[in-house]
Amino acid sequence: MQKINNEPNFGVNEVLCEALRYMQNNPSNNGAIILQVHNKNELLPIFCTYENKYIQYGDKLHNLSSSSVLDNVNGIDKVVMKGLYKKFYDKDSKFRKELYKLTPRSCPICDAEWGYASHTLDHILPESKYPQFAVTPLNLVPTCYRCNHSKSTTVGTQENQGVINPYFNYINLSKYLSCKIYVKSSDLVTNIFLKSESELDITHLQYQKLKFFYEEVYKLNESYSEIARISVLNSMIDTLAKFNQTFSKSDMIVYFKSIADTQELSENERISTEFLKSLLLHSLLEMDDQVYMVLIDLINEKRTQAKEFKENF
């Protein structure tokens, strides 16, 4: 998980001022309550106070999430706040575009590169529970579709769960992950999992927060395991199927070791497919006979399916 180096160059005040200008020129039922609160001089001060509170808690947002669930903000229903977000952070919004610029390369949560993954905005504190932060820029993190929808409305409310926000937090996931490959229902399963707490130089509280973030909030164990199986392992099987030979288990391990030796497993890098490949290779070096036999079956199956196609367009 990467830290977003720069904070948004605008605050909730700018978003609401633009919304007010629009509503004054385009009256509507939903906008009426917002204008009413504004006319009492209670709109901008309230939301700016909430924004300052958000900044104050920063890397300890669980203290905020545990006590700030609301149905409305000073009479403004959460449905109205959701509509405000949709209108002023829509796909063509200048505010959305500015936030996207903060993560130009990849999703800060899972490291999936843009182009292979699509941009979304994730409410760290869900708008359905915390409407007071529905349009607060620091509560809106550019993440990929998968991370956003895996998280949904899950949020930590206890100290041992925490709330991870890339504007305030950083986790070097690469040093905490390991891989296990095993057989299930005559197929291979890759499991990219957190190392045990005893293997890591972190506190018990940190481990609990890490586990909640990795497995419960964004379900990265599922995402990375799927990528390792479908993309990485299948690619290895495709390559092995091209060799005109039958591999013994020792031959296969020698082959995997030759690749692993060319890939340094760094504990300070993004979780890319190459990193997952390194983890998988180290697991394959210790494969048991059952894994080996299924690998052979998959390689032979791939060879049987292999067929040359002539171009036709």
TrEMBL record:
Q: Which residues form the HNH domain?
A: 107-152
Protein known as: HNH domain-containing protein
What InterPro entries does the database record attribute to this sequence? Answer: HNH (IPR002711), HNH_nuc (IPR003615)
GO MF assignments:
endonuclease activity; nucleic acid binding; zinc ion binding
What is the taxonomic lineage of the source species?
Bacteria, Bacillati, Bacillota, Bacilli, Lactobacillales
- Give any Pfam family that matches: HNH
